[in-house]
Hints:
The protein has helices at residues 3-19, 25-32, 36-48, 64-86, 95-102, 108-118, 164-172, 207-210; strands at 52-53, 61-62, 143-144, 153-159, 180-186, 193-197, 200-205, 213-217. The N and C termini lie far apart (48 Å). The strands form two sheets. Strands 3-8-4-5-6-7 form a six-stranded antiparallel sheet. The protein has a two-stranded antiparallel sheet with strand order 1-2. The radius of gyration is 19 Å and the shape is globular. The longest helix is centred in the middle third of the chain and has 23 residues, at 64-86. It is an alpha+beta fold. It is built from eight helices and eight strands, in the order αααββαααββαβββαβ. Helix 1 packs across helix 2 (25-32) and helix 4 (64-86) crosses helix 5.
Amino acid sequence: MSSVIKENYLKALFFLSEKDSEITLTDLGKAMQVSKPTVNDMVKKLGSKGWIEYTKYKPLKITSEGKKAAALVIRKHRISEMFLAQIMGFGWEEVHEIAEELEHIKSDKFFDRMNELMGFPTVDPHGSPIPDKDGNISKPNHVPLTTVSEKSEVIFKAIRDSSSELLLFLNKKNLTLGTEIIVSEIEPFDNSMTITYTAQPNLHLSHSVALHLMVEKN
């Protein structure tokens, strides 16, 4: 098993474990887009490394060692994304695919230098926290925009499960991280909302878009 495949499986397990403590082979297969026999073979190898607990016919469980190993890959990914955006001028919709390749570079010095050049950022371009060198990840107190009541004032802090299509949509609307938003109106029928901010006096957002916008109360 190549280190790249191993690290991609670890990341998938980490993110699945954030949503549900019980992970099935089917869940992992969908996340990795591979067949169940392929997943079965891989989890045995990950189990032999001590990164997961695996018993036949039972859910998978990522161990503390596995979580740390995964978090360190995520750290490299998010540092890379921030470097691409902050230093190299890439758009936040462009950085993910490039960072997917950079995250597998083995040199810690490489990422330490990138981090230093940026002044040690704590979040990536999408507002996701960057794990520290011990694999610890802070849990920001952000909530989806959909949970905010009408007339509330909030600050746009992060994107949840971002796609390039969503990021390009936000670019067109000049809606960037750090923007102060007022929820002008919420439509009871479909929970869509109208928001106001400096660049847009009245922007209508569907519930599905608002669900991906993580905010902090002003």
